[in-house]
Amino acid sequence: MLERYLPILQWLRVYNRSTFTSDLVAALIVTIMLIPQSLAYALLAGLPAEVGLYASILPLVAYAIFGTSRTLAVGPVAVVSLMTAAAVGNLALQGTAEYLAAATALAFISGGILILMGLMRLGILANFLSHPVISGFITASGIIIAASQLKHILGVDASGHNLLDILLALGSKLNQINLPTLVIGVTATAFLFWVRKQLKPMLINFGMGERLADIVAKAGPVLAVVATTVATWGLSLDEQGVKVVGTVPTGLPGLHLPSFDADLWQQLFVSALLISVVGFVESVSVAQTLAAKRRQRISPDQELIGLGASNVASAASGGFPVTGGFSRSVVNFDAGAETPAAGAFTAVGIAIATLVLTPLIFFLPKATLAATIIVAVLSLVDLSALKRTWDYSRSDFAAMLATIVLTLVEGVELGIIAGVGLSVLLYLYRTSKPHSAIVGRVPGTQHFRNVDRFDVETCKRVLTLRVDESLYFANARYLEDRIYDLVAKQPELEHLVLMCPAVNLIDASALESLEAINQRLQDSGVRFHLSEVKGPVMDKLKLTHFLDELTGEVFLSQYDAWQTLSKAEQAKTVAAIR
Amino acid sequence: MLERYLPILQWLRVYNRSTFTSDLVAALIVTIMLIPQSLAYALLAGLPAEVGLYASILPLVAYAIFGTSRTLAVGPVAVVSLMTAAAVGNLALQGTAEYLAAATALAFISGGILILMGLMRLGILANFLSHPVISGFITASGIIIAASQLKHILGVDASGHNLLDILLALGSKLNQINLPTLVIGVTATAFLFWVRKQLKPMLINFGMGERLADIVAKAGPVLAVVATTVATWGLSLDEQGVKVVGTVPTGLPGLHLPSFDADLWQQLFVSALLISVVGFVESVSVAQTLAAKRRQRISPDQELIGLGASNVASAASGGFPVTGGFSRSVVNFDAGAETPAAGAFTAVGIAIATLVLTPLIFFLPKATLAATIIVAVLSLVDLSALKRTWDYSRSDFAAMLATIVLTLVEGVELGIIAGVGLSVLLYLYRTSKPHSAIVGRVPGTQHFRNVDRFDVETCKRVLTLRVDESLYFANARYLEDRIYDLVAKQPELEHLVLMCPAVNLIDASALESLEAINQRLQDSGVRFHLSEVKGPVMDKLKLTHFLDELTGEVFLSQYDAWQTLSKAEQAKTVAAIR
Fold first, then answer.
1. What is the distance, to the nearest Å, from the Cα of residue B272 to the centroid of all Cα atoms in its chain?
2. What CA–CA distance (Å, rounded) separates B218 from B225?
3. What is this structure's pTM?
4. Which of A39, B2, B416, B555 could form a disulfide with B531 if both were Cys (CB 3.0 to 4.6 A apart)?
5. How far is B394 from chain A (nearest CA, A)?
6. What ipTM score was computed for the predicted complex, to two decimals?
7. Do residues B266 and B102 touch, judged by C-beta distance below 8 A?
8. CA-CA distance, B283 to B329, in Å (whole number)?
9. What domains lie within chain B, and their CATH numbers?
């Protein structure tokens, strides 16, 4: 029991020197990678750079205690940082104490929601984010993030939470471009793209091992940071208008509780819920991918608690919302991390950086950080998924397109809410006209097939309708309409059989519909039968009066139904002839 | 084509003297019943009494032209009138010109929505109102309506849109009760209850035919109206504080377009949408019940157009939202109406009443109208449905209870929205953990059954999981979790077969999950197979790369899978022994 809620107890017991060494090496590599990322994502969220470092210390320790993935690396990530900026940007001005307080409160509320969902085992709620919606959302977020960073590359002031606002703001400032900033920004971006695409194959060509080449290539941003910082310091570019990170307070963050302002909490609640769910879905899918490679298991419900604890820890140490990040988790995995201790060691690394390195990043240009963000997020943009989804399913495509368009045009929150709403509606719509077929007997067999597709035996006084979907409120009335239509068209009809081999559920609405069908068919002189009802569905029906009132019978197999009803029919015909 | 959109063309062609006589008799009876109802429901909606009459003329003619039910009687109904009061009450004060204008605009917008839904064949949208939600909503509305009429019985001023407000307002006015009003109100209510419960059996005892007895009993309200009006006039009770209908303008309503105020339309849109859907669901279920009794058909999509035209007609003639009413349609049917012409004749009857009778209702006490409303709506209240639904399905019960409680506490609009939202969420939740079973072979047969329930053959290197639900976004991740769990628990596993006989759909999210499962099982050295995939599902999968990437095979039957995989297994074992 205790081990379930404290996964650290499972791996700490078997911890030894070998795992310690592996974890330490991985932690060192992840630390180097995480420093520029955490600074950059803090700026993306509209926060001072040091807040990114703060969000990369305690949250990692909390996850190491409560998380179930051996290799997930938590911290600030792009999409969640964008969502933070959108949520907090509505309430306070960037740079104010209120803005920081709101971001911290957001992390706290989000952490609380995640822990609560974990305790109530509601990880399942994340399922309402369908894949096309999350994929469309990440693509659109990537585009917005990249666009929002252009201002740092160009060296102008411009902001907005949707694509149009951002582009308009940029457009109006094009005459204020700062040339040295532009040179740094474009060079850094080009360099990082080159590192991402070309460096690894080149290193391998030079005889470096593939894994090492991969890790070196992932450290590209560090090189860009060092080079541009030195250049800015050496050439005093900050005096020529290049914006730099500037003074970052040295020292660890203090611990304090976030603001408990009821108004603020209410305003942030929906945003926190969205951030929680999006962050959880991203994180759990990374964790599952990595766990499967080593045949390990993660527990989604405990992951909620782990991520929740991380966010609470982030809030307590002056940070902002965090979650498991894709690229850094892959680096952690590839670098050989074996337990969550690697995360705790990374936290120590970042803490040392906070104590020692902050004076060194005074001259780090914001343009460089923007370049690292742009290169990272453009890899998230996957417009080809639109084509793939279109080919497979039009309604999934519609949900995806709506998510992308609304996220770009109206912002992240409306985009994801509309996407979720639409995918639910489309699913209900899709099942509201279920596939159904009138079936007849394949001559000489016990099989029954669609009369439109096969040459089968039917009987004009007996009609069998097979429905290939669970019966529930969204399609209950459709079933009624379909049956009344059939009966109205076939005046000789005496028996209607509903064949239910694919009916996994009959809810209360569908039960009412079946009762209405039974009643109305009785009024029209038609008996209503069921066949091939599944065990669990039948158990439910037995609790009601429906079976007592049913004018017909429930047949175990459609063949039984056919034999009983068509024999009665033959007997009647014979009697009539005599 | 023309006949589809103008159903009148179908029946007018075969119209003759016999149908004319039947329709005329039915119309006469319905007219007598409709007069007090339309006055009462106008008061319930917070409107002047004559507006009820106006809403019972042109709308009936419009329905006769565009509707598909032969016997549906449209006009003001209780629940829609309550919803009108709730919607308009937020925007204007009762008794003002703005209030009337808003009610008329509401009918117009609602009519437009219904016509649009009909043209787009979106009758299916009404399906999102599950039966427990609509039944709970009507029960709660009945309670609110009855409570809201108590002020007329007590002769005090008090109002509110939810039960608590109404009861508190009444409570604070108990010292202002008007005794003559109370006497009239209680007597009328008691009389009407007696009529409803006792009169019909008594008349039958006296030798009256059942159908006639039923119709006479349904005319009870008319008797109460006449008696209390005469008493009020004779005893000058209006001078003792009994509130009467008072001066009602004589003459037909003028035709005019409703207000096209964009702000007003925006404020009324959601209310109009809810009224449209609720009205449609009530009406179409009455129409279907009656049509089935004569083996007739109605077309739900054309019904939308018919009801939409009625509401537009109501708006154009100064009325408020209308729909098909249950009790008056049953009376119309029982009285022998054969075509929608009966409705048109009823319209003529009401028009004559508007021209001639209005001076006679000056002394009609509002308490009498309140009594007719109370007796009518209390028959809608069905708390026993709560028990029945609880017995059948806990999640349907939860949706129903939430609808009732929220409607009573927060009002009609929030009640129905929450009910719909909750029933959708609960459905998704219910299918998000689908029933699934590990299956094995029943020895000596080709059948495969749940290993937990049957004594079946299994093989530790081959595992077969049968899932009894369509695979879509709400359960895709659950499937992943379940499979990773199974694989992590069984280290010898080499083959995993997913058996899909009950999978009616695989959406894009589930496809991604299957791809992830395939990939991750490959990483763990397990081949992934499918069996018994349905034709339409397989057709979809063939459009993707999934089948190319699948590490295993797709078997037509589970028996094929068993034979192929366990034979390979045996061969391997034999080879290993040699």
1. 15
2. 13
3. 0.77
4. B555
5. 10
6. 0.76
7. no
8. 9
9. 19-127+152-271+284-383 (no CATH), 436-577 (3.30.750.24)
